[in-house]
Amino acid sequence: MRLDKLLADSGYGSRNDVKKLMKDKLVSVNGLIVTNPGYKTDEEHDVITVDGEIVRYRRYAYFLLNKPKGYVSSTDDPDSVLHLISEPDRNLFPCGRLDKDTTGLLLITNDGDLAHELLSPKHHVEKEYAVTLKDPLAEEDLERFKEGIVLEDGERCRPASYTIEDDHHCRLVIREGKYHQIKRMFQAIDNEVIELQRIRMKDLVLDDDLPSGCYRELTDEELSSLRRRDPGSEED
Ligand code: URA
After folding, report:
1. Fold of 126-201
2. Which residues are catalytic?
3. What share of the chain is helix, strand, coil (3-state, %, to 5)?
């Protein structure tokens, strides 16, 4: 891979910023200063430094975004969540969909294999939501989620688990991702979702202190646990 691309992908600025670093003789490969932006590196083996700091190249990028309302989970929309991510263009996309008015955890990546692992209906990846409801909750209605509720159009959901927090708030864990699923599940028990926030996907948890509209990189531990396939998941 070209050295300027590798450095830009690794967070050292735009290709022009990176060229300047090289011109200023701040970039070295295996101990030798390199000033040619097109220099071909072996990203697996070369030791690359910028101003003495070793560059940690990541083939893929992984960000946890705290999605605000008003943004959509598609890549080519004026209101795309990608406008919240100020990173070099690396073909990032949101892993999964949240409605425009849903907030919370959204994984932004360019790793298609991981996205497939997490989104495939066969892998039953857990997604947990904090739900605020218009009408008071009745436990006997929620019980119907446990067996797998049938939506108004006849579609059956997989069993979901829940915790009631108070009359109008609960946590719901689902293991699939049908269109508007949670809103439709509550419609099926004659209630209405007025606020929806995703707080967890598998072991990846939304930080309490990550402001709405902000994002952070995943840690190595978070990434390995996202990659681990749960025992209950079906083969592809
Ligand atoms: N279920 C919904 O209804 N909306 C979302 O955004 C996510 C799950």
Report:
1. Alpha-Beta Plaits (3.30.70)
2. 99
3. 25, 30, 50
- Look up tokens 């955890």; give the residue: 105
Full pLDDT tens readout for the chain, 236 residues: 999 999 988 888 888 999 999 999 999 999 999 999 999 999 889 999 999 999 988 889 999 999 999 999 999 999 999 999 988 778 999 999 999 999 999 999 999 999 999 999 899 999 999 999 999 999 999 999 999 999 999 999 999 999 999 999 999 999 999 999 999 999 999 999 999 999 999 999 999 999 999 999 999 999 999 999 877 777 77
Say yes or no: domain 60-121+207-229 is CATH 1.10.150.120: no
CA 98 to ligand 1 centroid distance, Å:
6
Q: How far is the CA of 181 from the centre of ligand 1 (A)?
A: 5
Give the pLDDT confidence score for residue 182 in this predicted structure: 98
Residue nearest atom 3 of ligand 1, based on CA coordinates: 180
Question: Which atom belonging to ligand 1 lies closest to the Cα atom of 177?
Answer: 8
Q: Would you list the domain boundaries of the chain?
A: 3-54, 60-121+207-229, 126-201
Structure tokens at 212: 């709405």
Mutational pocket test of ligand 1: of 183, 185, 195, the residue with most ligand atoms within 8 Å of the beta carbon: 183
Domain 3-54 class, CATH top level: alpha beta
C-alpha distances in angstroms, 169 versus 77, 104, 137? 32, 16, 8
**Do the domains spanning 3-54 and 60-121+207-229 agree at the CATH topology level?**
no
Comparing CA positions, the residue from 73, 97, 64 lying closest to residue 178 is 97
Cα(26) to centroid of ligand 1, in Å? 48
Ligand 1 atom 4, closest CA: 180
Substitution site in 99, 171, 186 for ligand 1 pocket (most atoms within 8 Å of beta carbon): 99
Ligand 1 midpoint to CA 180 (Å): 4
Residues facing residue 164 across a β-bridge: 170
